[in-house]
Write a structure and sequence with these properties.
69% of the residues lie in helices and 0% in strands. The protein has eight helices and no strands. It is elongated, with a radius of gyration of 25 Å.
Length: 160
């Protein structure tokens, strides 16, 4: 005759409490780790934004987040969905579009301002993303009614 286990007895209660506390501790640790990783990625993104004009290496970005390059790359990818390099490139092109629309800076100056050493490379990559040169982008969107500018901005692509 087999005995069916009872749901809980007074003697089992401390074990259940220990398991519950352990689960809560593990869940809270996971939340703390997740928050720590998000803060590290946020620090790295701030560093990227603050240094768009500079040649930034993956090692420098990882150091800002206080991780090794390889671990940071995995963490960054998991948190943002992009590699640090692609994310930095997108930040640079977002800033370039802002500068083209809001300033009278020359394209060459904007390319340096967003971290490109060559205006040719900047123009080629800008055209690949938007379908038009930086100058044509500026001219087109400056002549467009202000309320529709953002509706007509080219879609961000994931080209590195």
């Amino acid at each position: 005759m087999t005995q069916t286990p009872t749901i809980s007895t007074h003697r089992d209660a401390p074990v259940v409490d220990i398991v519950s506390h352990r689960q809560l501790a593990e869940e809270s640790t996971v939340a703390e780790v997740s928050e720590h990783l998000h803060r590290a990625v946020a620090r790295a993104i701030c560093f990227m934004r603050d240094n768009l004009a500079e040649p930034i290496t993956a090692d420098e970005i990882a150091r800002t987040a206080l991780f090794s390059k390889y671990h940071f790359t995995r963490v960054f990818q998991r948190v943002t969905g992009d590699s640090p390099g692609r994310y930095l490139t997108e930040l640079r092109f977002e800033r370039a579009r802002e500068l083209l629309l809001s300033t009278d800076l020359k394209v060459v100056d904007i390319s340096y301002e967003v971290g490109f050493a060559s205006v040719g490379t900047f123009s080629t990559r800008f055209r690949e993303r938007t379908g038009v040169s930086p100058s044509a982008f500026r001219q087109h969107f400056r002549t467009t009614a202000p309320r529709t500018v953002y509706e007509r901005l080219p879609v961000r692509s994931k080209v590195a």
